[in-house]
Amino acid sequence: MWLPKDERKTLLKYCDYLQDTQEYTRFVFLSKRADISTRNLIDRGLVHEIIEGGPEHVESLTASMAKDSINLRNFLASSEDDIECDNITLRLTIKGYDLGRKYNSFWIRSGLWFAEYKHHWIWLIVGFLGGIIGALLVNWLSNSNK
Fold it and tell me: Per-residue pLDDT averaged across 37-54, rounded?
């Protein structure tokens, strides 16, 4: 799955702080772009939000009292005053953890990108230009042998 740029960056940031699917952390001072990306990741099922008062109330209390909160004040911020969400407690899902690990590797990430865009129209133009360059190269090499 290939995510938009902000969502990829946000998922990688969360994967840096959350080492497995059982760990949860409170993130504070999210910018508007980071909050929107986080909400999209939650909707896609890649990140799970731990809500106060819900079934994970103990986890939410533990994250707010015992663990240090992660400050994301300047992450994806447009300006200094760009704060949308004060705090949010998150845990990675298995799908999100796996995709975050894939995005962390250049080769796997480029493979995901190619798998997403392999039928894009730009490859027609790239193939056409490659054919022209190949023909010019063959012509140049055949003239240099004479």
Answer: 87
Bridge partners, 25 (sequence order): 90
The predicted structure's pLDDT at residue 74: 80
Q: In angstroms, rounded to a whole number, what is the distance separating the alpha carbons of residues 12 and 29?
A: 18
Higher-pLDDT residue of 32 and 95 is 95
Q: Is the dihedral of CA 72, 79, 44, 104 positive or negative?
A: negative
What string of DSSP letters covers the chain? ----HHHHHHHHHHHHH--STT-EEEEEEE-HHHHHHHHHHHHHTSEEEE-TTSTTHHHHHHHHHTSPPEE-TTTT-SSTT---EEEEEEEE-HHHHHHHHHHHSHHHHHHHHHHHHTT-THHHHHHHHHHHHHHHHHHHHHHHT-
pTM of the model: 0.76
**What residues are paired with 48 via a beta bridge?**
91
| Domains of the chain as residue ranges with CATH | 5-104 (1.10.10)
Sheet holding 85-92, edge to edge: 47-50, 85-92, 24-30, 70-71
